[in-house]
Design goal:
Layout lengths: L3 E5 L3 H15 L5 E5 L3 H4 L6 E3 L2 H7 L4 E4 L3 H13 L3 E4 L7 H8 L6 E4 L7 H6 L2 H7 L2 E9 L10 H17 L6 E8 L3 E8 L4 E7 L6 E8 L2 E6 L5 E5 L4 E4 L6 H15 L3 E3 L2 H14 L5
Parallel strand pairs: 1-2, 1-4, 2-3, 4-5, 5-6, 6-15, 7-10
Antiparallel strand pairs: 7-11, 8-9, 9-10, 11-12, 12-13, 13-14
Helix pairs in contact: 5-10
Length: 301
């Protein structure tokens, strides 16, 4: 099956999507790639079969199997609906939006459709390895997850630490612990325009912690997972995964060098080809996270 893809939003992260898509197109995994941004200068120089400045024009002129939405969160839901109305699958960057009620209404309409939300770390081979039977057996019952993401980049205009950076952390915490965020009490230990840190205490006994920041002194990309058998420390910048077990042994674990964004696109393209309805993560997880963000992301200064 030949697959045609539209990319909407060609800013900093959108160009990363384009880089992966251009490679997949060269490899013959997609047969047509079109790009769209309301700022025509953003698509200048991007290799594509067509360039657009409005999604309406793109959808009117193309027969697309999938659309990637890499735009500000307040535009996500309306753009996704346009894609769905044209029977296209949707890969949407996180979060769904920053309006919980709108998210609830939107998710009530996605049955029978393909919607993949861009929680890219779920596709990271290192975290997939952490979830593997081999590592889970070594770690035993997971009791805590720590997520550290500090970047030297300046904060993008309109962004907040929790809704933009921390959202990956709370998703990883809930995913690795297999617990809904609704079971957690959240206490912030740091909160400001450029940084945020919080502990999530689950009623089932587990804990999560995230520490995120812009304009940091160094780049930090760490996930630490502790179980009753030991600890795993994964650097999702370098790809290094180390186990420190309670029996005193320490070992490095081999991790596939594949790029998470490419893995995310391969997952999405498989859904486009199969036409099997998919919501990823599940509607329950997305609603749980939306409710948590509604309660915590908008109280920052």
């Amino acid at each position: 099956m030949d697959v045609a893809i539209g990319l909407v939003g060609c800013g900093r992260w959108g160009t990363n999507h384009h880089r992966v898509l251009a490679t997949l197109r060269t490899e013959g995994r997609i047969h047509r790639l079109v790009v769209c941004d309301i700022d025509a200068s953003k698509t200048d120089g991007l290799e594509a079969d067509a360039h657009y400045t409005s999604m309406e024009a793109m959808m009117a002129n193309e027969q697309l199997h999938g659309v990637a939405i890499v735009t500000p969160p307040e535009t996500h839901l309306s753009l996704a609906q346009q894609a769905f109305e044209n029977e296209a699958a949707v890969l949407m960057e996180k979060p769904l939006s920053e309006n919980h009620e709108a998210n609830q209404r939107f998710l009530s309409t996605v049955d029978g459709k393909v919607l993949v939300v861009g929680y890219i770390l779920r596709h990271h081979p290192g975290l997939q390895k952490v979830r593997s039977p081999e590592v889970r057996k070594a770690l035993g019952n997971i009791t805590s997850v720590r997520y550290l993401r500090r970047t030297q980049r300046a904060r993008p205009e309109g962004s907040t630490p929790v809704a933009t950076l921390g959202v990956h952390g709370v998703d990883v915490i809930a995913w690795l612990l297999d617990r809904p965020l609704a079971l957690a009490t959240t206490r912030f230990s740091a909160r400001g325009p450029d940084e945020s840190a919080a502990t999530l205490s689950f009623s089932t006994g587990e804990t999560g912690f995230f520490d995120v920041a812009w304009s940091a002194g160094e780049e930090v990309r760490i996930v630490e997972v502790e179980g009753d058998g030991g600890q795993a420390r994964f650097d999702f910048g370098s790809g290094a995964l180390m186990l420190e077990l309670n029996d005193g042994t320490t070992r490095d674990v081999s991790v596939s060098p594949s790029e998470p964004l490419r893995a995310e696109w391969q997952y999405f393209l498989e859904r486009c080809r199969s036409l099997n309805p998919t919501v990823f993560p599940s509607k329950q997880r997305l609603l749980d996270q939306s409710a948590w963000l509604d309660a915590h992301a908008h109280t920052e200064p």
